[in-house]
């Protein structure tokens, strides 16, 4: 999610991953509130336009999110959760381009959109969120950075902030007798820059760890041997990799080739990225919000449905998107309306009450999702929970 966020020159353009999904609800058209009048009932068909990053830099995460949304919609429809109303979805691709995301969002709003499920790539979210707020259209996005939602009235973050889980990682390293830690991070990604500058130093200090090296590596680097050689020269007990997407692969491989024998710890961006490394990725640990090995009833239900639909195991991006759609469905049922204000009030009520989903017990505070989270280890081609939710 947030590990794909890129820095831009816009002050608010911190990036994050989620799948931009705009709901265009049949029967809408009120000038004042969008959709029908409050309490007017749901239409027979709730048409969902998904403005998703399925190509470009965020493509892998966007596609996983899209699949998670499809699982939720199939379950909602087949269970009759919305009574006789059915959800329909039409996915559209931004190509990971903010301008395209804004154009598609504008089209949806002008056609009577009542709610938006916001984009997965935060450069797109940064452009969309002000537009949704001005239009007073509820928008739920999937970034693991809550900054676009905090303090807003209509914008919601459906993915729990990733930085709230790093303390587990620091405590894990301490318990493994690591004392000196090095950090390698993507300096051209807003979330990883933040984690390296403030979040991880705080977590390491609280756990009694010493940061002996801190080196930046761009996301475009396919060979991280130079940065790794500087870090390894400091003889750290562990290396924390705060990187985005395939940048994780380059750094982990460089550490293995440098014969680094200490612990390799990562961030939520390791999800999916480390898979192709097979044995060379085994032993890497990172904090996240989901593992497909979690044994709760809700998680198992989601994993089973996902496997049946796609013949594959879901990752955290798919799980967050699944819960995102269920958050919306609960609000639609509560509102019994496609009116924007009615939906937003229902989101407030459902979010405050909370519900159990694939990510665990979810509750919204300051419009930002909160969930238990967990620490996982990549082992035998599986994301194995070792601490936290589901363990």
UniProtKB/TrEMBL annotation:
PROSITE patterns: PROKAR_LIPOPROTEIN (PS51257)
Statement: the UniProt record of this protein carries the keyword Cytoplasm: no
Keywords, in A-Z order: Signal
Family statement drawn from the similarity comment of this UniProt entry: Belongs to the leucine-binding protein family.
Residue span(s) of domain Leucine-binding protein: 45-377
Signal peptide start and end residues: 1-26
UniProt name for this protein: Branched-chain amino acid ABC transporter substrate-binding protein
InterPro entries: BCAA_transport, Leu-bd, Peripla_BP_I
Organism name: Dactylosporangium sucinum
Keyword Signal included in the entry's annotation: yes
